[in-house]
Amino acid sequence: MKRRDFFKIMGIASSAALSACKVNNADKKLLPYLVPPEEGIIPGVPRYVRSTCMECPANCGINIKIRDDQPVKLEGNPGHPINKGALCMRGQASLARLYHPDRIKQPLLRGEDLKLKPVSWEEAAKTLQNALEDPLAKTLRKVYVSSRTTGTLNQLIDEFCKEKNLERLKDVEIYHHGAVKQAYQKLFNMPVIPHFRIDKCDVLVTVGADIFETFLSPVEFGRQYAEAGKNNHIKWHHIEPYLTITGASADQRAVVNPGSEPYLLAFLLHHIPHRQPIPGKIMNQVPEYSQDKVAEMTGMKQEEIHAIIKALQSANQPLIMCGGISTTKCNGSITAYYTGLLQWALGMMGTTVDFDHAYNDDNVGTIGNFIEFGNACDDFKIAVAFFSRLHGFTAMPAFVDVMKKAWFKVAITDMPGPMTEICNLVLPLSHPLESWGDAEHQKGLKSIVQPVIKPLHDTKSEGDILLYLMGKETAYRDYLAKHWQGMDEKWIEQGYKTSEVEPQPVRLAGEVKLEKPAAPYKKDCLFIVPSLRGYDGRSSDIALLKEIPDPLTAVSYGRWISISSSEARKRNLAAGDIVKIETILGDIKGPVYLSPGLTPGIMTIPIDALEGTDMQVERGSGEFMFCLEDVKLTKTGETTRQVVLAGATKTGGRGILPHLEKHDHPHEYKRHTLYPPHEHKDYRWGMVIDLDACIGCSACVAACYIENNIPVVGKVEHLRGREMSWLRIEPYYNNPAQPEFVPMLCQQCDNAPCETVCPVFATYHNPEGLNAQVYNRCVGTRYCANNCPYKVRRFNWFDCSNSLPLYQAFNPDLSVRPKGVMEKCTFCIQRIRYAKDRAKDEKRLVKDGEIIPACAQTCPTGAITFGNLMDPNSKVSQLAKSRDTYRIQEQLGTEPAIYYLKATKGRKAAARHL
Known about the structure:
It is globular, with a radius of gyration of 29 Å. The strands form 10 sheets. It has a 7-stranded mixed beta sheet with strand order 5-4-16-15-14-6-7. Strands 25-20-24-21-23-22-26 form a 7-stranded mixed beta sheet. Helix 7 packs across helix 14 (about 330-345). Among the domains are: about 110-170 and about 365-440 and about 445-500, 3-Layer(aba) Sandwich (Rossmann fold), CATH 3.40.50; about 180-360, Dimethylsulfoxide Reductase, domain 2 (3-Layer(aba) Sandwich); about 525-640, Barwin-like endoglucanases (Beta Barrel). It contains 30 helices and 36 strands. Strand 30 and strand 31 (about 770-775) form a beta hairpin. With about 900 residues, it is an alpha/beta fold.
């Protein structure tokens, strides 16, 4: 048979087979580009638009990856002054909010049957106008309250309130740092929070400030910390009453009794030479304690106190900062006052403490301000109330019960919740990726928010909502353009614009009244801690953030109460036992997690696990009291299974973390194999992970999920041990006071155990050193997973291609794996192929740094380096040859392509016990 005839017959047979299949073409159409797209847009080639992340008040710059008019990935904006290309896990996961199935899709109006029903925008505006013109509204107060608002929207809200005769209340945030602002106001007559420059300091002392979790700008602080480590060889002391990932990353972590921080700060004020004088009227109010007394009150060791004094005395540019839990409990205000005095005395103003570029929190009030509004509601003095973007508060029953006493309530939000259940009218917000806007995170920096997709539902941005309710035909985009006069298009392209700021002279007040510190807490305490995954609760409705385990506990779904392991033994408690904690807020129930890093008498619970619990407010600073004293814990007798995705909490000498003693392994592991070594011509892809730089923030895990179309499987599958993450953060408590975080992913072994056991050759070693996986060849025997010593292979038990909410954001550069197929990390093979194709077109090899996997791109501290091990001049090759590198379980002879830089900081070196 001739070759041409063969292909004819095969073509006819294939057509007959296809025609016999039942195909439903009614709901699927292939739409070609009949009209060419705008210039610069090539079908199938991604384009990037710069905008601003609005998932938390930090307002990091983002690069939005768009494929065929669909946003599929968020990255940090490389040039943005705040994050410089990095992005946290919440920012990465915020893309899922755009496609969330529970988003409010159109205006809702509560009818006579007390149920919310969809209405048009015209009917919603008419109903609202009638409420504003009601005689009752003319005699009582009408108010507008929102979460932190900056930029042009701030001005528009003022105009809207003026036109509608509304009283605009102070913006409200659960973490508003009121004690810190109050201290700066009284000490320096500047009611702002300065811009802290960790990158400029050589000694850092943080008092309770969780700079890597929720304090002010975590990604920026992570980036600055990495820069300070490279340039200034920073020495960092962290002081806190319970364990955080911030404390785990410090050089020296000191655990103090709750409320005892002012005793240490007062001691430092009296025993460190002042570079700038403090008036005697102020210093005379600062109590003087002996070092023994400070050690007794704080619970610190003498050598820890001495080390802090020595570091600050020898520092050229020190920085001390307080915040977080240390300013939201007993003695919180006085802690902030003493910190401000130390900043003045040690000459930090203008260098590491920058008031010129202070954080833009001018319109943010305290919780005390919000309580005044609640009292007015309770007295039925509020006729109409607008609630815009109120996060966290809606989970507190007392606030909701009070707010619903207003006569007519309007919610401006994107997701349903307790707030929408009490409101008469719900106006749906568009996602920031569907909206125009801007944000001013700090003085002298304005970031743009611009849409990349048309609204998926009948929603509007807050600016468009207010203009529509004012009867303006102007779109918010035109309103912004009017206020952006004098700004060229360059700032829109780069996503931000900086401007000169007027220098702010800092002068210490001549006389300030200071209170004496109260006695520290001595009884059992429960801390309501900020959530790395949910912030103050606003991000808790994103399923991906529940799927990713908490880095300190490795718990994914559900609430938990952490207690120390020694305390659990004393109370005869085991992991998963449900306990009841009696507090002044009421009873709190939950399963216990045994934490090696907590001290006896200290218990913690994440704030986003406290839905349905009210909070107590400290009168002086107006902050929530996140430390509850004199609590009583009792065992209920019930138990439950916890979703803990980690194995052992200690390495047990398995080669996961190295010994640091010299000559601990006098003989190198010899390579014994039956197979010849693999040859690599141009490329051998490898990675180096710096364990000193890794802070356990899990941004890499979130980026990996979204980049590689990894499904979110839920709590039930996690309980069955069927998690799907390609990358995980493993916490190891060899030193209980400071765990070490080890990012674990496929090691791309040169002598991979998984390859030799696959019966269908679905996993094989490709010419560039990757353990490639052929999905359509895999038959799901799972032999490879059983033979992998790193436990990084995942099996698809179900077809998750249509899983919500991520399926609309799937990366088209990567296939979606079907049921019955193994999968694992590929070093972002799609990015490797893209760079290689571009290099081939330009007739060259891939340049060093041209390929950046998703995990490395988003890391705030730059802990992950990727490149070609065959190139001796590449950064990854030079790091891999360092004497400080090791490979995990290399004694097995697997020859991994991932090298780890040993954690060589003093606190880790002194505390590692394998």
